[in-house]
Amino acid sequence: MNSISKLFGGSLGAVLSSLLIISCGTLHAATGVALREVASGFVSPVVLCDFPTETGASLIVDQAGTISILDAKGTKSEELFLDVRSILSKLNAGFDERGLLGLALHPKFKTNKKVYVVYTAPLRTGGPVEWDCTMHLSVFTLSKTNPRQVDLSSERVLLQIDKPYANHNGGCIAFGPEGYLYLSVGDGGNTSGIGRGHAAIGNGQDMTTLLGKFVRIDVDHGNPYAIPQDNPFPKGPGRPEIFASGFRNPWRFSFDRGGKHQLYVGDVGQGAFEEVDIVVKGGNYGWNAREGFHGFNPKDATKVPEGMPTKALDGRAFTDPIFEYKNFNVFKKDPDSKGISITGGYIYRGKALPHLVGKYIFGDWSRVWAKPDGVIYVATPPSKTGDQWTIETMEPKGLKNGSIGAHVVAFGEDGDGELYVMTNASNSLIGKSGKVWKIVAE
Ligand SMILES: [Ca+2]
What we know:
Layout: H1 3-8, H2 10-24, E1 33-42, E2 45-50, E3 58-62, E4 66-70, E5 82-83, E6 100-105, H3 109-112, E7 114-122, E8 133-142, E9 150-163, E10 170-175, E11 181-185, E12 213-217, E13 242-245, E14 250-255, E15 263-267, E16 273-279, E17 290-291, E18 294-295, E19 323-327, E20 337-339, E21 342-347, E22 360-364, E23 375-380, E24 390-393, E25 407-413, E26 419-424, E27 434-441
Parallel strand pairs: 19-20
Antiparallel strand pairs: 1-27, 2-3, 3-4, 4-5, 6-7, 7-8, 8-9, 10-11, 11-12, 12-13, 14-15, 15-16, 16-19, 17-18, 21-22, 22-23, 23-24, 25-26, 26-27
The structure holds calcium ion.
């Protein structure tokens, strides 16, 4: 008997209880879960993915520049899978969005041993004066003598993207279902899509730069890569690598391993709205003319303009997000505000949590910038086209108000489709507070 029935007893209790279930029926579907710590001692873990040559093992990327193996027994390797610390741009002893940001193994990794990595390197020779760094997309190969280690000297840089500022890197990579490599790139940094290195129309809207875009390339052909002939603009104008445009800081994306294998991304907003997009070929997701479902004024990010532009300057229609939520920075005391910076996640397709199958699990960095008050959210797709997604706070067992007591840096997915949340408790690249938690049944 539940507590309401206990309190009122008999049929009245049953009626009240069912009313409560009706009125709150969708509010707590995100319970029945717990977070189990599976690895610690990281600075700030940003990627977890399957390591297919060892059953049950995963690779974990630390933004500070290292990759470790977590074996099937849950033991973190002493020896590093890859260590790029010597080739990274110098990182702040404080908050920093640069570092080692992306990892993807080639779909035929077991035979070709190719490992793709994204990191921020020092500004390349000849890079624009006063710009900050150069983002590298590189391929490495496994050591010929050690199957648990990448050969650092095997690096081949495939793509270099100069960055005017240190922030808004994106830097997430994954192979799509058709075998092409996708890379998310931030708008160049600073704030509101303006300043040094930002086009007058905003980098997200400027098709001559890869900043503020999703890039798609064919790493199996060409030198160093080929442009897929079904890219939306294979012959220009602008950069033929572009798959989709109009992003600010596409921080973490994933392909749904089930369903229609769609590409989901969390695009970090300026201060009013955080959003999730399903990224399609040729889509323009609006930044910096739009933030979520709203207009955006780069000259005053604190006021949401009336009306919403529906078309870019070149006439292309903007693509709406699938959902947005309010940001505390502008909507300080609004009960609908959910956070300050979205961390994109995954559609759950595992076995351990049947009630989450088909839902999008994502998070927010923290409800208060410098305080470790990150939250995990569960978004449920509408059952009817045209209806809204619903967003609930995940309430892992033992955690008050959904707060996980750390910043939510990223999510990961293992070979079985089970999900992990990666956290950092220092809001910086100082210390070793970074942890990896598996989302498990309560
Ligand atoms: Ca957008």
